[in-house]
């Protein structure tokens, strides 16, 4: 670990915090329908879309209608993406003449992008046409991100409102999010990425003759437009197989730094939207504080583990940390930081190969995902995931002092706690359950690349990443098999929708409640005590759930590594 | 609920066309005008022929060139398309080795590389980036130490003085951005092009 490394990490945190208020201000105005600097241009477009779709932007929806609208939107999105992948051979923008994507891989990829997971069983440059990348993936990157943010805003309305039956209008939220938030940022962002060296072209791959006279075919494509939304929307599905480690998908140290910022920007800004909408910005800062504590701890451990290197490399006299699977321009610190950010948020883009991380360095990304990606989290998804934990923490605190728990003026009662528990329990059921199945089925075991405990980690990581809608991988595992395509798709689906539906039910039941003023008996939810309480509940629930599985994978591997045991 | 079906279809199609076609195509047009070179992949031409991209590493094996990092990319086996064979710096199939820290295959490979490099230059410690594969398999850079480590071999093959090559490496080393972001590095292709020009 170096001083300059820590300065890079500190600089990152400072800029993220500085972005929170401006983004929170802007997004709050967007979602409450107030005037924004972009309104003169976008209002007519927005109105045109509502007119076409027959949407009355003033008419709000009950939580059930809101959820059904969201699900219908997803069914359509799935059909488009699946169709484009299956038919890409016959469609335009296919200079490399890629053939149709196989049915199970198309199914997996469609579910994967629909759920904001972006698990890459597909190979990017070796599998997909430019049309599939644009009309299939880029578009779904936008829509799954917009949906996540819309749902978080709906849940915030649940907390902020008093005695109301409605939680907003899904169509309005999605349209506004896409037009006012995602598209404008992406246009500027994509141009910046091109300036750094990211290709943006529809030309076919380039054939080069290298200095030594060999032939090298170089994949290019409309990369920048996709990468902008991939990062901003915490989607993470790469244009190229190697994702953000590919020099075309992350050309410079600056592009890397801005990509890391863009993963956290909207998610962190949403905590401020929460604070503003419930009428006290300090409520939002407290939530961000909980996320910050967990984040810094994770960064410190991964950076330490990677900088120390592995026993095997050190024994050969190689100094400089574990550089296997990392790029020189990023080095140890930017690779470690990126890995923690991408799994804290549910992004899943990678600028280094997590499979080649040290046991403990790779365990932190795994833990981040198993905690439910609530450390800033996916755009929207992170906030509603965190609010579920807050509900539980408040409930636990209420039990300790024997009072009805309340949060931002809402009584937390049996229904809320049940919904929160349902959402939180379904995640381990998926990733632990499928991992158990996969390690006993011979055809699943055959996909494992690394022997010993690391192989177990690969399988656990795959199902955790899918369930958490992250999409990063211990990439050695051969995921493009019938078994994994189907089971991972199931995990992604359940991990997304069995979290969303309870969260929306919670939003509906909270919105219907009366707001009660804070009294002397109310637990203050803006201070250090509250932050400590929520961090504690997250670690206890998380720890009890997945520690046994971690012990079989990364922990035993770390012990083996220190004893210099190879497999 | 049924009245949600019309917006579901109409808005989905409209937003799909907007974000899936209009946006990427408009960005392609804009980028092509503002940053034409980068948008095409930062290609390098020599005598009218594309010799590669400034951002994509390529394989060097001859003694007279500086070598990049080991690459784990593969290609389909020409004899049996269900299998893959090693194809370093295959820029249409980026990939890392994905070998874990306790995998014997990894340690054996690194050990062999270290032994080979030690024989080539016994006077300096082996830089770690020269014996580990990159994440993309297309890393265009090596650390300045890794370039300096190769100077004796290249000097011998070219009949140039070591001091001159060390100067060349230093001239082509890039520092951290603003002294802060990223890591010091040398672009191998740019260095080798300069080397050819330095005759």
TrEMBL record, chain A:
Any GO MF annotation of the entry: potassium ion binding
Q: Spell out the subcellular localization from the entry.
A: Cell membrane
Lipid bilayer topology: Multi-pass membrane protein
**UniProt-listed InterPro entries:** KdpA (IPR004623)
* Cellular component aspect of the GO annotation: plasma membrane
Q: Which residues cross the membrane?
A: 6-26, 63-85, 137-156, 177-195, 257-274, 286-305, 330-350, 357-376, 382-401, 422-441, 482-507, 528-551
What keywords would UniProt list here? Cell membrane, Ion transport, Membrane, Potassium, Potassium transport, Transmembrane, Transmembrane helix, Transport
Where on the tree of life does the source sit, at the highest rank?
Bacteria
Which NCBIfam families does the annotation name? kdpA (TIGR00680)
User: Family per UniProt?
Assistant: Belongs to the KdpA family.
Q: Briefly, what is this protein's role? A: Part of the high-affinity ATP-driven potassium transport (or Kdp) system, which catalyzes the hydrolysis of ATP coupled with the electrogenic transport of potassium into the cytoplasm. This subunit binds the extracellular potassium ions and delivers the ions to the membrane domain of KdpB through an intramembrane tunnel.
| Subunit note | The system is composed of three essential subunits: KdpA, KdpB and KdpC.
Q: Tell me the HAMAP family matching this sequence.
A: KdpA
Listed name of the protein: Potassium-transporting ATPase potassium-binding subunit
Q: Which gene encodes it?
A: kdpA
From TrEMBL, chain B:
List the NCBIfam families.
Answer: kdpC, PRK00315.1, PRK13999.1
Per the record, the similarity remark reads: Belongs to the KdpC family.
Q: Where can this protein be found? A: Cell membrane
Q: Which Pfam families match?
A: KdpC
* Superkingdom in the source lineage: Bacteria
Q: Does the keyword Membrane apply?
A: yes
User: A single GO molecular function, which one?
Assistant: P-type potassium transmembrane transporter activity
Which InterPro entries does the record cross-reference, listed alphabetically?
KdpC (IPR003820)
HAMAP family, per the entry: KdpC
- Where is this chain primarily localised? membrane
Job of this protein: Part of the high-affinity ATP-driven potassium transport (or Kdp) system, which catalyzes the hydrolysis of ATP coupled with the electrogenic transport of potassium into the cytoplasm. This subunit acts as a catalytic chaperone that increases the ATP-binding affinity of the ATP-hydrolyzing subunit KdpB by the formation of a transient KdpB/KdpC/ATP ternary complex.
GN (gene name)? kdpC
What are the protein's UniProt keywords? Answer: ATP-binding, Cell membrane, Ion transport, Membrane, Nucleotide-binding, Potassium, Potassium transport, Transmembrane, Transmembrane helix, Transport
What is its quaternary makeup? The system is composed of three essential subunits: KdpA, KdpB and KdpC.
Q: Which PANTHER family match?
A: POTASSIUM-TRANSPORTING ATPASE C CHAIN, POTASSIUM-TRANSPORTING ATPASE KDPC SUBUNIT
Gene Ontology terms, cellular component aspect? plasma membrane
The annotated topology with respect to the bilayer is: Single-pass membrane protein
Per its record, how is this protein called by name? Potassium-transporting ATPase KdpC subunit
